Amino acid sequence: MRNRLILIIALAAAVLLILALRAQQDARVADLESRPLLDAAQLELLAAASQLQLARGELSATLAREGEQWTVADHHHFPLQRERLAALLHALRGARILEAKTANPAHHARLGLDASAPAPDSLQLTIEGEAGSLQLLFGERVGNGQLMRFADQDQVWLINRPLQTSVSPRDWLDLQVVQLPLEEVQEALWQHADGEQVRFDKASEGDYNLRLADSQEPGYQRWINGVVLGLVGLRAQDVQLREQLQLSDTPMLRMQLQTRAGDRLQAALQAIDGRYWVLVEEVERVDGSLLQVNADPRWAFQIGIAEVEALARGGAELLSGPQPVDEYE
Fold first, then answer.
1. Helix (H, G, I), strand (E, B), or coil: what is residue 36?
2. Which residues form the DUF4340 domain (predicted)?
3. Which domain holds residue 119?
4. Residue 104 shares a structural domain with residue 182
């Protein structure tokens, strides 16, 4: 009985192995029978593109190359997220045509491939460069693939993967303003509009935790670190040109810090009509600096109330920490 059970298990394992190998072989055959979506000339156009336009329904985003940098043209040519662009380019280069579908234009609208009347979920991608332009339409999904066609051709193709990307200009903005490990911060000074100054330093070089330089009390460590982390890890919610804001000469908070390598960063926090904006005012970086910052003087970076509360905590709060809440109040 035991030997029979072992034999059954062995046979089942062998069958599963054969099925797995066959599926793998079928996938390889299908891959060999497919071909890249873009040919050599189209790939060259993509590599040298000066502009990419994405549209879905009423939303659209235009990405423009300025020298070696890509920007969001719809948002005053603010720098875009390179990782998102790399993902889009990788998807286009890796897409493969599996089979031909209909070439009858009468079916284009139903499949979401009518350029004159696109479906809400269909995507239009236009690639423009000195060598010309190319428009691709991506429509309905079929299994794990997607239907598409080139705008100048009636032929519909099934490709091996859907092209998924945002067409909202805001989603493309690179809103990481400052990046610096906290252990690199040596000292910092926060100057509040009411005259209060809060100084931070470290017990020894290379420590992670900061302390209140002018106090003998330890304070609430999480909030002390959080104040400076709010600047060295600053990620904005939105960005705007400074010239379009009514900026004040007396911000609610000035922040400056120095790293152990000698970098310096100075920024200000302003409140304008219920919104809060950080302005990077001055940056000095040494060779080999770990400090990454968008120091372009054209921009103001909007942050949320939670980030404001973390940045603007005064000395008394940092010493006492969060206060217990009386549930009967």
1. strand
2. 70-240
3. 35-172
4. no
